[in-house]
Every structure is written in structure tokens, then in C-alpha cells.
Amino acid sequence: MNKDILAITERIIARSKNTRRAYLDKIEQAKSETVHRASLSCGNLAHGFAACGKEDKQTLRGINHSDIAIVSAYNDMLSAHQPYETYPPIIKVAIKETGGVAQFAGGVPAMCDGVTQGQPGMDLSLMSRDVIAMSTAVALSHNMFDGALMLGICDKIVPGLLIASMTFGHLPTVFIPAGPMPSGIPNKEKARVRQQFAKGEIGKDKLLEAESASYHSAGTCTFFGTANSNQLVVEVMGLHLPGASFVAPNTELREELTKAASRQVTRLTQQNGNYMPIGKMIDERSVVNAIVALLATGGSTNLTMHIIAFARAAGIIINFQDFHDLSEVVPLITRIYPNGHADINHFQQAGGMALLFKELLGNGLLHEDVETICGKGLSRYTQQPVLENGELKWVDGPEVSGDDQVIASVANPFKVDGGLKVLEGNLGVSVLKTSAMREGSFVIEAPAVVFEDQHDLEAAFKAGELEKDFIAVVRFQGPKARGMPELHKLTPPLGVLQDKGFKVALVTDGRMSGASGKVPAAIHLCPEALDGGLIAKIRDGDMLRIDGETGELTLKVSDEELAQRDNAVFNVNGHHQGMGREIFGFMRRNLSSADTGACSLFDEDEVNVRGGVA
After folding, report:
1. 112 labelled as ligand-binding?
2. CATH number of the 421-571 domain
3. pLDDT-derived band of residue 515, with 50, 70 and 90 as boundaries?
4. Structural domain boundaries in the chain
5. Mean pLDDT of all residues in the chain?
6. Tens of pLDDT along 456-496?
7. CA distance 128 to 304
8. Could you tell me if 181 and 223 are in contact, meaning their C-beta atoms sit under 8 angstroms apart?
9. Tell me, what DSSP letter sits at residue 486?
10. Is 154 annotated as a binding residue?
11. How are strands ordered across the β-sheet holding 173-176?
12. What is the DSSP letter of 107?
């Protein structure tokens, strides 16, 4: 095992000592020696199975067989979640064959960042994660259930389901994916068309034609954004069946994996004698594994916040420095768009998760001796699922990459580090994704051009006002100001300027898309402008330095000059009204900083999140 990863893991264990102990005590008190519904009164139980068929009612009257909750993010507007429409009947039959019952416990909202990019609804995106966690808690609050199946894929859905799953950590829990859509037009071509549109060379009809050829059917979007990063992280934590993450929807193999996952959760229940609740299964080593895999593949920067948040729900305290230090020792061994031209289907064809596990485990970069839904040890995950004569089996995965331009080796990586830097300086702390950046773009020192809305930058670009070296400062985008919307609409214009030879970069207290990376972007800046962060004092023309090599983020203005300046005032200007934003004020005001997960669900008076002191 890599000694640096071991040391970082031990540091996290020590930091989390008090919070983790309190968490494990909590889930120990919540477990039941028999089925959970045994604690319900006759009236409670009658309500709980009133709509069941006669056979299921008879099963639920007894105390020998499990009742499994299905929590689903199905809706048919999201391509990734549309396949879940058919899952509940399949799950119910599979679990009935084990002698148990499955009940659809609840649905959770699932919004699409791809639909809301640059729109008012994007201001709700991050907060929807906490709503999903609370919705899942409501679904599981009836105390009918002995285990849970989580059906979710995309950006905030899986993190929300994970927060809730850790909160109900006494329940065995399995996550069931649905798989990616088939590959559409090449990602390089899609990016080219977007930049053509940004330059005014083509109209909306051509842009829509290209976008529709990329996002064209049921399944997850194929680039390596937050959705596919979620799937990778969940599998590396042992919450998927081996090799399940990137099997295409609406295939026989996909359906058999769904049935197998349904049966697997019943094997982990108290009634089966092999009790393994998710809160005990996932520990500090599991979370470190998740971060290592994210870094090794150049995954979404959004997971920096999400991992911090769901780990916190399990009493494990993670911070930005952990990501930075792990990135220093974990090499980048995949090239998936935006870190390359391949998509997630090409990754699967090159060897997929089985090969990734083999490389990381074989080089001591993952903790192997962790619990998973398949038992102890990650070595099982170097296998991949296949159908032989209609029967689901697992076989050894490939020994070498089928395409070394998509999956490299630890011995010969694409980059010697994981491509994520934590920047610090007088502006605060932020995250910089370097895995997709061009050589020579890691350091930039240039005058600031200040914006308080991404659409103002687009307008300045179209007016020809940005044909120069500059660092765009887009402030008042943080959790408390606007709910931390993604600013992915900035990628095409800034990319165009970069291609023209200008040195451009971004500093923001907001987020970029999980598919960002080409343009240097110091994101998730803490403290945010609305919390008195120094970003609120930046003026046009101030010199800024972003150094992706030394980790420096500096506003080069004297302390004396800054002391004379007032903070800019946030102009709400309708940002808290319309598209439902007016009813999220209570949550927005209570969101923590990005480096503590940008979460509204944890009581800061109860636990010091940064220090882990109870």
C-alpha cells in the first residue's frame, strides 16, 4: 500500500475519531435484532402493507423475511433516469424469489444540469442534493424496511441518496445504475460546434443539430462529467455489483445485473445472518478509495463537495487538503472527455472498471481490505459481468488496456499526478482542475475583469471587449448568494479567447461543470463574496495570479489599499425570485462553505466540521 495514501488515511481517521464514534454508536442503536416492522403497532403495520397483495401481506405479517425499500429518481425527462421506469417490477419479482418483499418507498426529485445550464433553475441545482437527501429520509422514515435499493445516477441525485443512506446507516443498501447511452457525435466535434456558435459562425439550428446528435437516447450522457464520476465513485466504494456502472440500458445484461443487485441486498440483512449495514461498510478507507479513483480518472470537480458532504453524514471528516495531497501521489491514467476525446463507452471497451481496479490495486493505490456489498475485499471488482447461455457470471477482467490512449498504466500514466490542485492565498482557498489543461496554461498573471453574472461576461465577449489577456472574476455565485450554480456557459467564450492566443482564466466562488477543465478555473473559492471573502473587493484591472504549479492564488493589491476598499454589495436583482427560487431561501441561507460540502443538513453547533471535534 502506498505509504503516502496510508498516512493521509490515518490523518483522516484521527481527525474523524469523535464524529465517527458517535456515528457508529447511533447506527448501532438503530439496528434491530429482528425485522424493523416488528416494532410497529398493529395499526402502523396495517397501514404499511394495506396496498400489498395477499401473499406479500402474509410475508410482512411474519418476522422471518426482509422488506426492502425501493427509492427511485425515475423521471422520463432525464435520459439517464428514464430506464428506471421498468425497474421496480423487476426488483419486486427478484426479491420475492428470495422470500422477501420489496415496496416502492418513495421517489426523489431529479433535475438535469444539462437542461438548466445558464437558466434560473440552475440556482436550485446544488440545493436539490439536500432535498433529495431529505426526500429519501422521508421515504425510509416509516421503519418498515430492513434494507434499501437506491436508483439514481446524475449530478446531485447520487450524492443526495448517499447522504440519506449514510444517515440511515443501520440499513444494508445497494445502489443500482442504469448505464450510459450509446456514443453520439465525437466530443471533439461537439466542442468545436459550440465554439463556432460562440463566435457567431453558425446559428442555433446547427448547434441544436449537433447537441441532439450527442444527447440522443435513454442513458447517461457519455462524457466524464459528474454523473459518470458518481457511478465510478459508487462502484469503487463497493456499493455497485462489480462492473455494473457502465453497462448499457435496455440490454439483457443490464436487466440481469438489476435482478442480481436486488437479491444481493437481501443477503446483507439481519434476517440473513450476514448483516452488513452501509454505515459500517463505508469507512475512512472506502472514502479515500473514492477520492483516489476520482483523481486517477480526472473526474468531476463537483465530487470534491459531494464526497465531503456524504462522508460527513457517516461521521468522516474530509477537507480540500485531503484531495490535494492525494492528487500529489495518484497518477492520471484515463483520458475521457473533457480530459481527452474518448467517452465513457470507449473507457468501457478499453477495459473499464475491472482494468481500473486492477491497475490501482496492483500498484497499492487503493485499500483492498474494505467491506463491499459482495463481501470483504476489492479484488472481486477486477472481474467483469458477462452472460453465458443467459446466466449471469463474472470473469476476470483484461490484463492490459484495449486502448492505451484511453486507459494507461500507473507505470506510464498520462500525468504523474491526479490533476487537481488546491490553490491558497490572500483570496482564500479554491480548487483548480489541471487534468484537462494545456501545457503552458498552468500559470497566469493578468488583470481582473469583474462580473457578477455569467451572462454579463457573455455579453462582453460578443461585444469584443475581451480580446486581451485577463482573469475573469465572477463573484456572488457562492452557496449563500445564489446556491452555487454551475457556470458552464462560460467555457465556449473563454475557450475561443484561449484558442486565439490570449491568456485567460477564471476565478469564482461558484462552480464549473463537471465537464470543465480546458480553461484554468479557480473555483469553489472560500470564503465566498457574500461571506466577506476578499473576492468582493476585487476591481477591474487588479492583478491576479493563478499558479497551478505552486498552488498560489493571489490578489496582488497591497493590504493598505484593500483596507480602504468596501466590499461590493450583492445585487439580488431577481436572483432569488422565479423558477421556484423564492421557496429555497431558508436552505440557501444555511448552506455551508464549499470546503465543508456546501451543505445545509449538518448542525455546525453540534460538530466542528473542519476539525471533527464533537
Report:
1. no
2. 3.50.30.80
3. low
4. 3-182+217-396, 421-571
5. 94
6. 999 999 999 999 999 999 999 999 999 999 998 898 899 99
7. 17
8. no
9. B
10. yes
11. 101-107, 67-72, 147-151, 173-176
12. E
